[in-house]
Automatic annotation (TrEMBL):
Residues 137-168, 180-209 form the 4Fe-4S ferredoxin-type domain. One of its GO terms (molecular function) is ferredoxin hydrogenase activity. Keywords: 4Fe-4S, Iron, Iron-sulfur, Metal-binding, Repeat. NCBIfam families: FeFe_hydrog_A (TIGR02512), FeFe_hydrog_A6 (NF040763). The keyword Membrane does not apply. The keyword Iron applies. This is [FeFe] hydrogenase, group A. SMART domains: Fe_hyd_SSU, NADH-G_4Fe-4S_3. InterPro entries: 2Fe-2S_ferredoxin-like_sf, 2Fe-2S_ferredoxin-type, 4Fe4S_Fe-S-bd, 4Fe4S_Fe_S_CS, Cytosolic_Fe-S_CAF, Fe_hydrogenase, Fe_hydrogenase_lsu_C, Fe_hydrogenase_ssu. Residues 78-117 form the 4Fe-4S His(Cys)3-ligated-type domain. Residues 1-78 form the 2Fe-2S ferredoxin-type domain. Gene3D superfamilies: 3.10.20.740, 3.30.70.20, 3.40.50.1780, Fe-only Hydrogenase (Larger Subunit), Chain L, domain 3, Iron hydrogenase, small subunit.
């Protein structure tokens, strides 16, 4: 630890702490635009300037480490004026059409302008026109809004190891664009949406599909069905001023009914179904040696896109089980529609997800039309859902609680933990243990799979048989696990893992690219705590014990991996 002073207040911080972080110990949030706790500093915006006492030189707090004895000044009239000028320069090159911007109300530049009381921009307007790129099914780039902070480039290259984005051009013509200036759809982008979640302004944002849903809700010929993903329930409250991790499941069911949906289901039920199929696949491959090991999870569509693009030789290791919301989609337009006497194509399926890549997943292959028409019609992110609630005027937080429609809505604790990194693995092992031994796992909490460490490895004992597992989240972490597997297999050795879970986003879906803005590790951890609390308070905590899952197999599918299950609940991957 080192001793420093911030505005004459003594504070103690670990050696290596930046001035920006150290100032927080003295309750000072130094203004910034480019810096983000997830990313290495780019020192691009120049707003976080500070001084060392009795020295007029200004230094950038984000990129300078606190040194022992340093006396830091975080604000004085000169620093205020320079910061204000930096903001005015940024605004002189910005469209400033806040009322029509997707980030209106939660834009970091808008907030700084408000904080600094900027009333006019004293420079000539220097906006350079750039075309909007809306070629991707998941997100849109509007380079005119870009403040060149570099967060999107860093997140795509460093956190996700995708390298889809880069800066193109120089000076005023500089803009963010897909690498080699191709359209986003033709770039290596895997649609994870992390660039949209880290952009401080409205330069990158999810495709807004709320108009299509509002329209469908007015259509009397359509039977409107909706489902919510595990991670939505612990994050949506943030947009209404609640703490991250607050569980709002029953209020969400209520608001969806008030918005006009005919049936309200839960993706967590689909997660229980995915576990039934995926744990069965694991037993087939691991115990009966029918298929390659390790088995790799596939419920994250950005991860599927990544593997298909970067590691196509590993496709045989993928589970063929569809992701939970696709399972619910297929079952809604078959099992449920048949029970209700509805035609599949008259059912309109909406998924509310923490994810932008799910917008692409719904039309990625013919298998996503298992019912004869597209199984899920539209995906809304948590952010889009929040806007729907707010524009409806419904007093969301004061609604009475309600239940989902039971047929595809009742879930176990294993279903909800899908929303946090390690949750799919934990849920799968709870059921695989039962499938392999015929006995229930005594202690269902598998702490080894939990937490925000980028790669988690463990050996799980299933009655004397050792199962080696790995869990990775944040795409940049995946390569280490895959390379270990590839080199073992190339050398003709046993692979180091039998089962691998991957989620593209840091923290898993709680940190998804479509979640409320402002996620940091602290917020991801709080959302995950909500997820595990929901599991802990569930009466049933293993997917195979879900009575509605059991009924579905009995009435309709037969058993896991049956012909019917394969037709409706499994998919293929392509290079
Ligand atoms: Fe996820 Fe999944 S957990 S992928 O992260 O398998 O999006 O929440 O809905 O489908 O269940 C996302 C979350 C989500 C699916 C499930
Ligand atoms: Fe990169 Fe993900 Fe953004 Fe695509 S969605 S540009 S992969 S960060």
């Amino acid at each position: 630890m080192i001793q420093i002073k911030v505005n004459d207040m003594a504070v103690e911080v670990p050696r290596g702490t930046t001035i920006l972080e150290a100032a927080k110990k003295a309750q000072v949030n130094i203004p910034k635009l480019c810096n983000h706790p997830d990313l290495p500093p780019t020192a691009a915006c120049g707003l976080c300037i500070v001084k060392i006492k009795n020295n007029p030189k200004m230094i950038r707090a984000c990129a300078t480490k606190a040194e022992p004895g340093m006396e830091i000044v975080t604000h004085d009239p000169e620093l205020y004026e320079v910061r204000k000028t930096v903001l005015e320069l940024i605004l002189s090159n910005h469209p400033n059409d806040c009322l029509r911007c997707p980030r209106n109300g939660n834009c970091e530049l808008q907030k700084l302008s408000e904080d600094f009381g900027i009333r006019e921009v004293p420079f000539t307007n220097m906006i350079v026109e750039h075309p909007v790129d809306d070629s991707s099914p998941a997100l849109t780039i509007n380079p005119a809004k870009c403040v060149k902070c570099g967060r999107c480039v860093e997140v795509c290259q460093v956190m996700q190891n995708v390298w889809a984005l880069e800066f193109i051009g120089r000076g005023y013509n500089m803009r963010i664009a897909p690498a080699a200036d191709v359209k986003l759809i033709d770039s290596p982008c895997v649609k994870c949406g992390q660039c949209t979640a880290h952009c401080p302004v409205g330069a990158l944002y999810e495709k807004d599909e709320t108009p299509a849903v509002w329209q469908a809700l007015q259509d009397p010929k359509k039977h409107k069905v909706v489902q919510i993903a595990p991670a939505v329930r612990v994050a949506v409250g943030e947009a209404f001023g609640l703490e991250p991790g607050t569980i709002l499941t029953k209020k969400i069911y209520s608001v969806l009914k008030r918005l006009g949906f005919d049936a309200v289901f839960d993706t967590n039920f689909g997660a229980d179904m995915t576990i039934m199929e995926e744990a069965s696949e694991f037993v087939e491959r691991f115990v009966h040696k029918k298929g390659p090991i390790p088995l790799i999870t596939t419920c994250c569509p950005a991860w599927v896109d990544y593997l298909e693009k970067y590691y196509p030789d590993m496709i045989p290791h993928f589970s063929t089980a569809k992701s939970p919301h696709e399972m619910v989609g297929a079952l809604t337009k078959t099992y449920y529609a048949e029970k209700k006497g509805l035609k599949a194509c008259d059912v309109y399926g909406v998924s509310i997800m923490p994810c932008t890549a799910k917008k692409y997943e719904i039309s990625r292959s013919e298998e996503m039309k298992a019912s004869g028409c597209q199984d899920i019609d539209v995906v809304l992110t948590t952010r889009e859902f929040t806007r729907m609630i707010k524009s409806s005027g419904i007093d969301f937080l004061n609604l009475p609680d309600s239940d989902p429609d039971h047929i595809l809505g009742d879930y176990t604790g294993a279903g909800v933990i899908f929303g946090a990194t390690g949750g799919v693995m934990e849920a799968a092992l709870r059921t695989a243990y039962y499938f392999i031994t015929g006995k229930e796992l005594g202690k269902v909490d598998l702490e080894e799979t939990r937490g925000l460490e980028g790669i988690k490895k463990a050996t799980i004992d299933i009655q004397g048989t050792k199962v080696n597992i790995a869990v990775a989240h944040g795409l940049a972490n995946v390569q280490y696990v895959l390379e270990e597997v590839k080199s073992a297999l190339a050398a003709g050795k046993e692979p180091p893992y039998h089962f691998i879970e991957v989620m593209a986003c840091r923290g898993g879906c709680v940190g998804g690219g479509g979640q409320p803005y402002g996620a940091t590790d602290e917020i991801r951890a709080k959302r995950a705590r909500g997820i595990y609390q929901d599991d802990k308070q569930s009466e049933i905590r293993c997917s195979h014990q879900n009575p509605m899952v059991q009924q579905l197999y009995k009435e309709y599918l037969g058993k896991p991996l049956s012909k019917k299950s394969h037709e409706l609940l499994h998919t293929h991957y392509h290079e």
